[in-house]
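Holo model, calcium ion. Inputs:
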Amino acid sequence: AKGDGRFTFRFYTRELTAAATDRLQMETALRKAIDNNELSLNYQPIVDPDSGQAQHIEALLRWHNPYLGQVPPDRFIPLAEATSLILPIGEWVLKKACQDMRQLIDEGHPLKRVSVNISSLQVQRCDLPVLVGRILRETGLSPEHLDLEITETVLMDEPDKVLESLNQLKALGVTLTVDDFGTGYSSLSYLKRFPIDTLKIDQSFVRDIPHDQDDEAIAKAIIAMARSLRLGIIAEGVETQQQRSFLMQEDCERAQGYFYSRPVPFTKLLEYLTDKQTV
Ligand code: C2E
Ligand code: CA
Ligand code: CA
Ligand code: CA
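Output:
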C-alpha cells in the first residue's frame, strides 16, 4: 500500500509539472501575442429578434499562435487575468474595437454600438476612464457608440472604488452592460446603486428554452424586471427558432446567438451587414 501511495504521488507531481509547463509555455507565448500580431477580434451581431437587423455588435477576442494553434478565450483569458497581461491586451481590444466601429459608422452602417468585454482587473485599475477617454479621442469614435460589458463580480469587490470608476465612464458618455446576468450570486440592490444601462441574460438560462420550465420562468422574470427598471435587455445564446419565438412573445428587445450569426471576422461582418440591412 505504501508503494502505491508513492507511485500515485509521483504520478500526480508529474501531471502537475506537465500542466505547469503548458501554462508557462502559454504565458510566454501570450506575452508576445500583441507584438506578433496574433490577436484579432471577431464580431457577433446583437439583433432585433423580430427583424434580425443588427443593432449592436459584440467584440470577441481571438488568439492564433503558430505553435499552439487557435487558443479558445476560455483558456487564455483566465491566464491573461492571472498574469495581468489582460491590461495591455484589454487596451488593444478597446482600441481595435473602437477603430473598427468608427469605420462602420463612417461607412453609414446603422449600428448603435459596439460592446467590449472588460475584466475586473481593468476596472480595479482606477485609470480605466482615462484610458477609455484617450482611446475615444484617438479613434474619433463618439462615446455613445461604445458599450462596456462587465460582470456582476466586478460590482462586488471594492464597490466604492468601482462605483466611482463607473460614474466617470458614464460621464464620458459610454454605456454599461451587466454580462452573464443572473450567475453572479450578488444582491440585486446593485442595480440601484450602479449606473447600469443594460442587462444581458446569461446563455445558461436561454439554452434549454422551451424544454426547461424553470429557465423560461427565470428569463421571463429578468425581462420583466429590466422593463420595469427601464433597463435595456439582451438575451444571449439564442440558437433555435423556438427560442427566438419565445423572446418575441416576451417582447425581449435584443437577441444574440448562433441562430442569427456566429462571431465572425470584420470582413465577414461587413458582408453580414450588407446582406441583412439593405433592401
Ligand atoms: P461572453 O462575454 O459571455 O461571450 C459570449 C460567448 O458565447 C462567446 O464565446 C460567444 O462566441 C458564445 N456564443 C455566442 N452565441 C452563442 C450561441 O448561440 N451558443 C453558444 N453555445 N455560444 C454562443 P467566446 O467568444 O468563446 O468567448 C468566451 C468568453 O471569453 C466571453 O464570454 C468573455 O467572458 C471572454 N472574452 C472574449 N473576448 C474578450 C475580451 O476581449 N476581453 C475579455 N476580458 N474577455 C473576453
Ligand atoms: Ca460578453
Ligand atoms: Ca455573456
Ligand atoms: Ca461568459
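The first helix runs from residue 2 to 31. The pocket of calcium ion (ligand 4) is lined by residues 180 (CB under 6 Å).
Archived with the compound record.
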